[in-house]
From TrEMBL:
GO terms for molecular function: alkanesulfonate monooxygenase activity. The lineage of its organism: Bacteria, Bacillati, Actinomycetota, Actinomycetes, Pseudonocardiales. Signal peptide: none annotated. The keyword Flavoprotein applies. This is Probable F420-dependent oxidoreductase, Rv2161c family. Transmembrane segments: none annotated. InterPro entries: Lucif-like_OxRdtase_Rv2161c (IPR019921), Luciferase-like_dom (IPR011251), Luciferase-like_sf (IPR036661), SsuD_RutA_monooxygenase (IPR050172). Residues 17-255 form the Luciferase-like domain. NCBIfam families: F420_Rv2161c (TIGR03619). One of its GO terms (biological process) is alkanesulfonate catabolic process. The keyword Oxidoreductase applies. Keywords: Flavoprotein, FMN, Monooxygenase, Oxidoreductase.
Length: 296
């Protein structure tokens, strides 16, 4: 079995959403031995949403009630950065197309500097059209917008002066004084499990952020990524894979540990666990985190 570097989702939403608890939770998780800390992203939760949650939403319950309360992901990571010294800090994932790339680059650069170069930038498309509507961004063409945003971030992080002329953004040549601590830039990870998302990982990203699935499904999706990387002249072995596990009510620590062992046997070296759906409060989440770390 491959050694697994285990991470943990920070208390950011639902019953665990307590801004005052983030720093203490992050410090405790690092002391336990967790090697990375993660946030997700949710813009809003409409009463009558345009789309149901893809993980099982229905007309009666269109999305998990935990998603109603959501702390900003970058603010959450900023609080964690100040309380930790070794754990990497990641987003899995930002709903990337709804952000301005210039403002996003500034925030992420600042966070990478504040953390001493520990940031992993996870980007995705999201699933809720309403989030695009309220931010004034068209739902159509969101994949192309993500592709261009990745290009803009890399340009702003590596060129000086830097500018961009594209379909979605025009940025005049500008002096960029603020540079990330990581060179050439923080790793850009991409989430998603559709064929287009998988090909985007192989063609343009530094890694993949999958959600836990049967190993045969993960194996097939990784084959698509590897083929796309090879076609683009890239080495698939250079791409990271950080798997997200979302245990639900009824799953035990032993169940979670067993599933993680399966992906480690598949060669995954990084994973993190989101305890928001099984923990009653922040203290309970830390208790489960200790048990889980010992089991894994």
């Amino acid at each position: 079995m491959t050694a697994l570097r285990l991470g943990l989702a920070l208390p950011q939403y639902g019953k665990l959403a307590d801004p005052a608890a983030i720093a203490g939770f992050a410090a405790a998780a690092e002391r336990i031995g967790y090697s990375s800390l993660w946030t997700g992203d949710r813009v809003l939760t409409p009463v009558d949403p345009s789309d149901y949650y893809p993980g099982g939403g229905t007309a009666e319950q269109p999305y998990p009630p935990e998603l109603v309360t959501f702390i900003d992901p970058i603010v959450t990571l900023t609080a964690a950065a100040g309380a930790t010294s070794t754990a990497r800090l990641g987003t899995s994932t930002l709903v990337a197309p709804v952000y301005s790339p210039v403002l996003l680059a500034r925030s992420l650069t600042s966070l990478d500097l504040l953390s001493g170069g520990r940031l992993d930038v996870g980007l995705g498309l999201g699933w809720l059209r309403d989030e695009y509507t309220v931010t004034g961004v068209p739902w159509a063409g969101r994949g192309a917008r993500l592709d261009e945003l990745i290009d803009v971030l890399r340009t702003l992080w590596t060129a000086d002066p830097a500018g961009h002329e594209g379909e979605h953004w025009q940025i005049p040549q500008s002096r960029i004084g603020l540079r990330p601590a990581q060179r050439p830039h923080p790793p850009i990870m991409v989430g998603g499990m559709s064929e287009r998302a998988l090909r985007r990982v192989g063609q343009a990203a530094d890694g993949w952020l999958p959600t836990l699935a049967p190993v045969e499904h993960l194996r097939g999706m990784w084959s698509t990524i590897s083929a796309a990387a090879t076609e683009a002249g890239r080495d698939p072995a250079s791409l990271r894979r950080v798997l997200r596990a979302n245990p639900r009510a009824g799953m035990t620590v032993a169940d979670i540990a067993g599933r993680l062992k399966q992906v480690a046997d598949e060669g995954y070296t990084e994973a993190f666990v989101d305890l928001h759906y099984v923990a009653d409060n922040v203290a309970h989440a830390l208790e489960l985190a200790e048990e889980l770390y010992a089991a894994v």
